[in-house]
Amino acid sequence: MRLLVCWILAMGAAGCAGDDDALPPVLASSKYIDYHIDTDATVSLQCPESLLAREDRFIERTAATLGVEVPEGRIHFIWRPGASKSCDSSLACYRYRESEGDGLILSSLRRERHELVHAIESPALGADGSRTLSEGIADYLGSYRWTEAGQTDFPAAFKAALSDGDEVDYERAMHFVGSIFTRYGAEKYRELRATVPGDAGPEEFAAAFESIYGLPLDDALAEMTEGVQAVEQPDGCAEGEASELLWDRDGLIDTTLELTCGDPSLYFFGTYDDTRPDGHQMHARFVVQIAEPGYYDLTVRGTADQPGSVHGSLRRCAPGLSTGGVGSLDGRIGHGLLNAGKYALQLSFPGAPEARAAAMVRVEYMGPPPP
Predict the structure, then answer these.
(1) pLDDT digits (tens, 9 = 90+) for 147-166
(2) 291 — phi, psi (to 5°)?
(3) Looking at the record's lineage, which domain of life comes first (predicted)?
(4) Side-chain half-sphere CA neighbours of 166 within 13 A
């Protein structure tokens, strides 16, 4: 489901409103983030160091892609579990507090990378620019969505969206930003972002674009017929985000995984809600490299020490493509046709107050694909 987001630019503005002097207590901190939970204490975040280590790496690689410095001020991430809307009308929002030199993210989800892009871009490029550009770059760098090719109505629809004032067409904004970022690079994007004010209409936007890119906006829009794939990758697929499971021999992985908190390089985190202890609240990711296309069996089950319910699946690290996969629930064998490539092994476990989990994992090559 597409997340609706808001970007609140001024202190006291509606949307991400809150008592700035009474932030919830800090649960965990990393290089860039102070993580808070706004809750009645029935939910706790397990293994926050694992989550925050990955978010720190995302901040660094996104800043490098954008060509800006990482934020000097802290990013306060406030998780509101169970909230249908963290902000006035959306699931997540960001506010840059220029006077304090920091930023606030409020979210109904445990993580929100679209808003993290705002937390990188606003301090570097300013908080009062075009929302079409800022929301477009946040989706382009902070999601793994894609836009369809062959959008013949795109030029007219994009210019109509520029006339809508505060309303942003997120899909077309990402299609535009992704197109110019791919073709012309980060430097020209930063120049356009710094030039176009937040209240620019279609004519002012077009004039700024032509002055920087050297061609009329209408001509550029007419060329944006190819689909755009966002930069971010599915969970566990980014370089260094999850540990790799190595093959025991050709065509077989047969291993027991024992997972605990404390190792920030391990993708293992989740929540514990003492009101629903049987829910699958803990999550782990590993990388599996499939060298030989063909049919594979996947079996995932609990261990003798921790025999609880375990769910697992192998999904290819190829966002936007229908590449298939295979799943296993509580020891039942899953059978599927897999292409060669990098896959994320996704595991989920019931929540546990001690934040431990274990699973037996078996991946076995069963035969070649059909001719």
Answers:
(1) 988 788 899 999 998 987 66
(2) -90, -35
(3) Bacteria
(4) 5
